[in-house]
Amino acid sequence: MKTNIVLIGMTGSGKSTIGEKLSQQLGMPFKDIDLFIEHTTKQSIPELFEVSEAHFRAIETKACKKIAATENHTVISCGGGVVLNPENIQALRKTGWIVFIDRPIEHIIKDIEIGHRPLLKEGKGKLYQFHEQRLNLYQSFADFRVDNQSGLEDVLNTIKNNLPKTITHKRRG
Ligand SMILES: Nc1ncnc2c1ncn2[C@@H]1O[C@H](COP(=O)(O)OP(=O)(O)O)[C@@H](O)[C@H]1O
Ligand SMILES: O=C(O)C1=C[C@@H](OP(=O)(O)O)[C@@H](O)[C@H](O)C1
Ligand SMILES: [Mg+2]
């Protein structure tokens, strides 16, 4: 059953920040897939990318499958590239409601930290390329899309006001 809330969207769109706040507000556990990967491999995301992007992606897929299969009533924040492998989404959507956090690139460019984001080390301009490659994927995999254009509180309220019954049921009962 779909009891998890799974946040997807561009790098810097707010998935980790929103996921943590949402989990606090809903009283649900929180799992950030990147943090889970860093914890289980005992290596940072940049260190994993230093081996190769393919190395990181293989670990990411294992993490998605594991988290999707073991978590319930959990808020899960994905990395921006989770949509690149359909296996990841296939696994996550079995147990989760997929929410696309849609934030304008111009907003992301203004505040994204590139230090722990190896794909942006050549510059933030890469964001435009990723957006072009990934926008359709985010849209097609999402059960729900939320605009992150104004404030984080608006985003949190919109998600909370649209939760499917499979997620609200246990919380209330
Ligand atoms: N609506 C917003 N208003 C202000 N800052 C935002 C908003 N959405 C995201 N941010 C900021 O953008 C940055 C990137 O957010 P983060 O949660 O790390 O994104 P992601 O996990 O999607 O890469 C953070 O500094 C976060 O506070
Ligand atoms: O967009 C991407 O491909 C990536 C996004 C990152 O997560 P955030 O979306 O939290 O930045 C992280 O998974 C890795 O650096 C790759
Ligand atoms: Mg994140």
From TrEMBL:
Subunit structure: Monomer.
Reactions this protein catalyses: shikimate + ATP = 3-phosphoshikimate + ADP + H(+)
Chief place of localization: cytoplasm
Protein name: Shikimate kinase
Protein family per UniProt: Belongs to the shikimate kinase family.
Stored HAMAP family: Shikimate_kinase
Gene Ontology molecular functions: ATP binding; magnesium ion binding; shikimate kinase activity
Pfam families attached to this UniProt entry: SKI
Superkingdom, natural source: Bacteria
Annotated function: Catalyzes the specific phosphorylation of the 3-hydroxyl group of shikimic acid using ATP as a cosubstrate.
Binding site for Mg(2+): 16
Any one Gene Ontology cellular component term annotated for this protein: cytosol
Pathway: Metabolic intermediate biosynthesis; chorismate biosynthesis; chorismate from D-erythrose 4-phosphate and phosphoenolpyruvate: step 5/7
EC number: 2.7.1.71
Cofactor needs: Mg(2+)
Annotated positions binding substrate: 34, 57, 80, 134
Cofactor note (record): Binds 1 Mg(2+) ion per subunit.
Keywords per UniProt: Amino-acid biosynthesis, Aromatic amino acid biosynthesis, ATP-binding, Cytoplasm, Kinase, Magnesium, Metal-binding, Nucleotide-binding, Transferase
Binding site for ATP: 12-17, 117
Compartments in which it is found: Cytoplasm
GO term, biological process aspect, one: chorismate biosynthetic process
